[in-house]
Amino acid sequence: MYVSAYVFAVAFMCLTAATPTPSPTSTPISTSRPATAHVEVVAEAESFLDNAHYQNNEEIGELFQSLARDYPTLAQTYTIGRTIQGRPLHALALNAPTATPTPTSDGSHGISGNDGDLLRPMVKLVANIQGDETLGRQIVLYMAEYLASSYEANPEVQKLLNTTEIHFLPSCNPDGFAAAKEGNCESLPHYVGRGNAAGIDLNRDFPDRLEQQHVNQLRAQSRQPETAALAEWIVSKPFVLSANFHGGAVVASYPYDNSVSHNDCCEESLTPDDLVFKQLAHTYSDNHPIMRRGNNCNDTFAGGITNGANWYELSGGMQDFNYAFSNCFELTIELSCCKYPPASSLPDEWARNKRPLMQLLKQAHIGIKGLVQDASGYPIPDATIIVSGLEDKPIRTSKRGEYWRLLTPGIYSVTAAAFGYQSNAPLELHVTNENAEAMRVDFKLSPVESNFDGNFRKQKVERAEPPEKLKEDYDGFLTPTKFEHHNYAAMESYLRNMRASYPTLTNLYSIGKSVEGRDLWVLEISTTPGAHVPGVPEFKYVANMHGNEVVGKEMLLLLTKYMLERYGNDERITRLVNGTRIHMLYSMNPDGYEVSREGDRTSGLGRPNAHLVDLNRNFPDQYGTDKFNKVTEPEVAAVMNWTLSLPFVLSANLHGGSLVANYPFDDNENDFNDPYSRLRDASISGRKLNPTEDNELFRHLALTYSRAHPTMHQGKPCPLFQNEHFVDGITNGAQWYSVTGGMQDWNYVRAGCMELTIEMGCDKYPMAKELPDYWRDNREPMLQLIEQVHHGIYGFVRSSIGTPIAGAAIGLDGGNHTTFSGTFGDYYKLALPGRHNLTVLADGFAPLRVEVEVPDAEPFGKRNPVTLMRDDPQHWASANDFRIIENVVNTRYHTNAEVRQRFAELETQNAQIASFGYADNEFSQHFNYLKLTSNIGEPEEHKYKLLVISSMFDTTAPLGREIMLNLVRHLIEGHKLQDVSVVQLLRRSVIYFLPHMEKFNDIFTMYNANNSICDPMMPDELAERLLSPETETTRDLLLQFLQNERFDLMLTFSAGSSDLSYPRGDSILEKFAHSIRQTEFNYSPLQCSSSATRQLHSETTERLTNLLHKMYKIPMYTLGLSCCRMPGNAHIASVWRTNMEKIKNFFGLVQTGISGLVQNDKGQPLREAFVKMLEHSSVYNVTRNAARFQLMLPKGLYGLEVSAPNHESQIIKTHVQHGIINDLGVIKLHSFTLIKGEVTELTGKASSGSGSTTSITGIVLDNSNHPIRNAKISVIQPPGLTHLRNFTNSMGEYRLAAVPLGAITLKVEAPRHFEATRDLRLPQAGQPTENVVFHLKFNAHVFGLPRFIFIIVASVLIIVGVVICVLCAQFWFYRRHRGKMPYYNFSLLPQKSKEQFGLDDDAGDDGETELFRSPIKRGMTIQPYFDEEHLERILHTDDEDEEQDFEIEPELDEADESGDEIVMLHHHNRHKQ
Predict the structure, then answer these.
(1) How far apart are CA 1224 and CA 1157, in angstroms?
(2) 779 φ/ψ angles, rounded to the nearest 5 degrees
(3) Quick one: 1018 exposed, middle or buried, by C-beta within 10 A (0-12, 13-18, 19+)?
(4) How far apart are CA 1144 and CA 1129, in angstroms?
(5) Nearest to 1216 by CA among 1106, 1364, 1046, 1072
(6) Among 319, 933, 998, 1280, which residue's Cβ finds the most Cβ atoms within 10 Å?
């Protein structure tokens, strides 16, 4: 220990002589004597309080150095370690000299031949372990200065330092302190300043007593440097007593801080020394003027003390570590409600805490103390002191054989034991604690005579060298390989042979069955087949999804053989298998494969499964549901269950029919309504790109495969699809052609697995002889893709005590796409080289964000272990929920009466912002509601109207009501604290909260009867009644309320999933939905099992959403809260915590948009004006009084058309920025008379003879209440007024002026509608007749015929016309080509007689005659051959006939009409020759 040279050896010897020596029988010896009462008033100069301020870490070091210089006999400074940012952890040791010691560098006991400081207890004061809790930091510094400066003058301080060694560590977390802000009573957002520089809460980072030893050892690898330094300091010194100072409450807390049951709070977890801890805690509390009241900071603690676990549980805390892993008894003392109070309050806080702290330091001298020595008087270190009744907490001796055992007054039996020594007989002691020091009890132990000699065998183990690489002669295989197609039976046999040949590397299992009962076989390749190895990533290949696309299946069978043969012989394959768990699903559609045919290039035979369903259209899709994925096929269900059961990191789906690597997304949002987008034969350039937020990573993965392929990267099209050109051989799926319900999108969106779709070749089912070429092309790309699974960030997610955290959401660079940690807490997040922000979120833990750099060279992966601290309810509430403990502690379901009582109390306590509607009218009798807005009673025209309903389903309403109650408390408390976002929300909006109560009692009775019921079921839910056309009181009242109030937005809650439902098709509302879901930290999506009732609720919600949007113009957003409609009481807090940010995002929508006023030229409000969003279908009416419009809009550039009847429209361009309401001011519209047609103002007498006229206004609508534009309205009776006519505007409105009084008839005509008439009587002059509404029926007739009949008639006429045209065309072609036909095609037909056909004598003797005229002319000389002269004459016969005007040559009787036939005859004859 640290003392000066002024200690006199004589005094020490006298003191030793006066102390009795313990006998060998270990008789207790008391060293204390009755003290004489003496009172002395000492004037204490506490100059350190002058200029009170918080000292930074550098100033602390300087202060301690100054104390060591000024008080060298008392003080010595040292450091116990450094922080992440390199700041030293300064410590100071204080005690008075009693001997001449040998000082050590760390402030510990140092003796030099004497033991004057022997048995002097060591106490430590520690503070600021959470950097933003700063008051204790200064209290510790003040105490150090006070004790050092008062030692000479203050007897109490002299006595304390003469008998106690006190160590001061004012800041365990100087990095956090540097980030904290003075004056902040709560933690900053994201706990900035609370944790260390890595964001770790150090008071959750210690080894925990409830964890197994190996877990703590694993946890030590990632422990924070501050924690490691503190833990080493604690276990290396024999501290007896400690105080750890915090802020945020006023209470003294004692161990344990957690329990075996791990409840959030309210269950004591007591140590064996509970009585001692309570005495220590009361010592501090009873002397503190505020703490002893026990009612501070909205918390109540009996006597100002509490058991840590009973307050709130935390694991990995320092006070439990002190007690469980050392001899030290530590209290956690909360000093003030404000964590970082202003420096001006420091003097007052010192005055409150000085006396309690002095009294606590004296408690180090209660109980017993002594030495444990052997028979020779040498100390026995690490001996055990066991007290009867407290056996679970033995005390161990120091290196010098010392021990201190704190005890309350009582009779105890004490035993000392040590390894190799005989334990002493139990010693009965009576402890009174009436003396100034602990009762001294020494022990002498005798050794045990034993022989520990033995023989031990040593064995030398040598690793065999790997065999030489075998020669490759078979396309990379080590054995002959046959390239052939495998049907289902052959494939199954092949896989079973592989499993039998390599049992230590493979595991064959089925994930399900096809429609026809065939197994979906998967072969796993890994060094530990059958079990997931923590830290080893999972990869999968899926092939033959389309039964006739078979190349992928055969490639996987070949790849399996290749990898298994080469394992152990090929360094690359060996490394890949050792570090990866590879799964291959060879045929996802075996039924389809069995009907497909070899050689098929492009057909669809065998493509679907046995139900004729395309499996790659059958997965759930993020954008919708259609007939293709409404019912899940068994093959798809099996693959989904398999994918969700394992933490797959990367995957590829192998197809055929093209040559390209395809990456998500596969479809766009509107593709479910656009069949054209699903056609492959359209041009690629015409498609809309739909990239994921990981687009660059997906492109990298696709390029990895494409560039490793000898031809894919060239991007050449297949012969049948010449228009398909893929740059670099990759494509975005949606840009190629839309695939709705595809597997790769489902993997990415739902399972967190990155998946590519690889098209392996242009032919779907090539011939077997082509398989070797496919293998050579795809072997290297397939291997390289598997290797990509190791590129990124990986590690384990554990709690501060080393417990693995499963299901933690891992996000990268602020993106919404998350992957999740596995059962053992291991995670893999693929990432490109560079620096990334990694976000980790788990339910019940504080979010964590760290920066990680992924290397751009081998090994391409970065190991990053993650430690999350328990997000205890109180601290979470302090940081996120305005410290409303009721929202997260002891949560339960409230009855109807309790809900009404809470609402009434909130109205009474907050009358300026809250109004409770209960039995005020018929509606409030059925629906109690609470209205929140600033300044209740002021005009609300300038505010948005928002509605929150607990649920549209009676069975979900109880949970929704609790979330609603929490929300109401959150808003009211935020308004009290003048939180900016809450104040602005209530200024800009009126919020109605409707807790549905109708069937609560029945549901609550069902729940109380069986708390395990997850989804209570009730017939005739509220949503179903709202959709029903049948009238019912509750239904009618609610719908009337919605119609009258004209809400801008509506929020309600459901269960069964964490999805958000909203009206589809409106881009503004879709952006709102995106904003609601866009939370800073995304929890993992709920993996809720599917059921018929949950599916029914989902469909009903969608129908109701559409109804309210179309009929009542209310966008309803439905937020899924949990899987169960009525989870247990304790889970309500978790539901609130995981959904609060989304709910706040919903209310945050009112912070962004535009507003303005619409007036005419005279400055008068145009109450009939409306605002239309250009490029959007939304139309908004202005308010009824001030003609004000206010629109909630997401950020972006908008065009507005402001219009009003009989006024010129105005187009306005505005840019909306997030969080800003853009005030457009007053928009003035110029008036004009809108007349299309002719309007005549009558100046003469009216037909009634009164001489007066009036006007008529109204609207023309169709049967769906849509306005009809440009409809003609005219007066047809009385006669002579047909000139009174006008046309409707874009809103269907019309106005007729100068209409005479009396009976008139109006006629309305509109294109494609039936005309309508109406008789009116206009009795009073000057008073216009308004709201004359016409409803026109749609005219489906065409040319006077019903449309259906017209279509039939037109179709018949078209068909007849086509037939006639075809016949005419054939006849024309026949006539045109008739003269060109050769005459040598003739026939001789037998005839019965010559007279029958009027034949002449030229008829043959055989009764046959020529029906076709002979090409030989009459008079033509028939010769066996022709010489050239005769031939020339014959060929030119026709020409000569024309030139000679039909003068006939003497050689010919008659000229031929055509020389062509002679030529044909000539050729015919030549051919015969």
Answers:
(1) 8
(2) -60, -55
(3) middle
(4) 23
(5) 1072
(6) 319
